[in-house]
Design goal:
The chain is mostly helical. The protein contains 4 helices and no strands.
């Protein structure tokens, strides 16, 4: 059942994107036109601030995760070859004995 739903979403991806973008645009326009009345800070009363803040926060988190991944997780191509050199020598010796 879940596979069918996901397959249907993939097949209708363009329509889904357009629908979601239209819904987001309607929400931003509604935020511009309808005052909320419970803002604690001045910038919260600006129309579309929540959408802009959320989008920028998402982009910053993606950039931070990418930077951490590049700095801490990724290794150069031959990184593990240096550590495996002694074991390869042992494998070569055992192959010669057989």
């Amino acid at each position: 059942m879940l596979v069918k739903l996901l397959d249907r979403l993939v097949r209708n991806a363009t329509r889904l994107k357009r629908t979601l973008l239209a819904a987001m645009a309607v929400l931003v326009i509604a935020d511009l036109l309808i005052p909320s009345g419970y803002d604690r800070f001045a910038w919260e009363s600006w129309g579309g601030f929540g959408a802009l803040f959320g989008a920028l926060a998402c982009l910053i988190l993606i950039g931070l995760a990418k930077a951490l991944g590049l700095g801490l997780v990724y290794r150069r191509e031959g990184y593990y070859d240096d550590e495996l050199t002694p074991y390869r020598a042992l494998d070569d010796v055992s192959d010669e004995r057989s």
